[in-house]
Design a protein that fits this description.
Elements (H helix, E strand, L loop, with lengths): L6 E6 L12 H16 L2 E5 L9 H11 L2 E5 L5 H12 L5 E5 L13 E4 L5 H20 L8 H4 L16 H21 L5 E3 L5 E3 L3 E3 L5 E8 L3 E5 L5 E5 L3 H5 L6
Parallel strand pairs: 1-2, 1-3, 3-4, 4-5
Antiparallel strand pairs: 6-7, 8-9, 9-10, 10-11
Helix pairs in contact: 1-4
């Protein structure tokens, strides 16, 4: 059996509050049930909100989904983001344990896949019973031959899972450019978290980092994250970083007021 020391288990589950559940419910599910079970199984738990807060957090999450040695997926509340993450993991036929609370109806599409139930009441006696059961399921799934693990691909009799392309070796020049881009994104993140950072816009307005900016048609352009000598730096509505030249047509009309 392969040593599970330093192995990671990605947790796919609702992060924010869901309708029909008390505030902070899924945080408690993670802290008091899933996290202890994963650790008891010998894995380091990794959840989406534990990853880097960088601009490309979606990329970080996708990498964790594919790179982690194990995954556990909580289908409770039938969260669409969770199903999206599960679909990616299953497409590559990677080992995943499915769990759900007793109040959630199992989706028909994956009703044939074994799922471990737990009580959404999180009563201490039920949690104490569920943790070792969940840990046992994680260990057994990890140790099992991939052909023995129940998955959506096996349910649909799909023989060839998706595969990642071979890694491409970057040239030295490309590595330098990507390194500088990474430094820029880190600098932008620092600026974005500094609520006292102000930028004077080309139209004379003084905007604070975090303010939403608009064009002269009062359409949202993005959120202010900083500036350079020649440009205004925004995070647009698709979470991409945009450098708007101060002397450009758009740069000259950027405003904080949508009216």
């Amino acid at each position: 059996m392969e040593d599970k020391k330093n192995k990671k288990c990605f947790i796919m589950m609702p992060i924010s509050d869901a309708e029909g559940y008390d505030k902070g419910h899924f945080t408690r599910v993670y802290e008091h049930l899933i996290k202890p079970a994963v650790m008891d199984a010998g894995f380091e738990p990794v959840r989406a909100d534990d990853t880097s807060k960088a601009n490309f957090i979606v990329v970080d999450i996708l990498k964790q989904i594919l790179d982690c040695d194990m995954a556990i997926c909580d289908l409770s509340s039938r969260n669409p983001n969770v199903f999206y993450e599960l679909g990616i993991r299953q497409a590559f036929n990677l080992k995943t344990v499915l769990i759900k609370d007793s109040k959630t109806v199992m989706p028909f599409d994956i009703s044939g896949i074994r799922t471990l139930p737990y009580s959404e009441t999180l009563r201490i006696d039920e949690v104490k019973k569920a943790i070792p059961e969940m840990a046992k399921c994680i260990k057994e799934t990890y140790d099992a031959d991939i052909k023995e693990v129940n998955s959506l691909l096996q349910l649909l009799s799909i023989e060839k899972p998706a595969a990642l392309p071979e890694k491409i070796t970057l040239t030295q020049d490309s590595s330098i450019i990507l390194g500088e881009i990474n430094k820029l994104h880190k600098r932008i993140d620092v600026l974005a978290t500094n609520g006292n950072y102000f930028v004077k816009l080309p139209n004379g307005e003084t905007a604070q980092v975090g303010n939403e900016l608009y064009d002269n048609n009062f359409n949202s352009v993005g959120v202010l994250v900083g500036e350079t000598s020649y440009s205004i730096i925004l995070r647009d509505n698709e979470n991409n970083i945009e450098n708007i030249p101060k002397n450009s047509d758009l740069g000259k009309v950027l405003t904080m007021f949508p009216f």
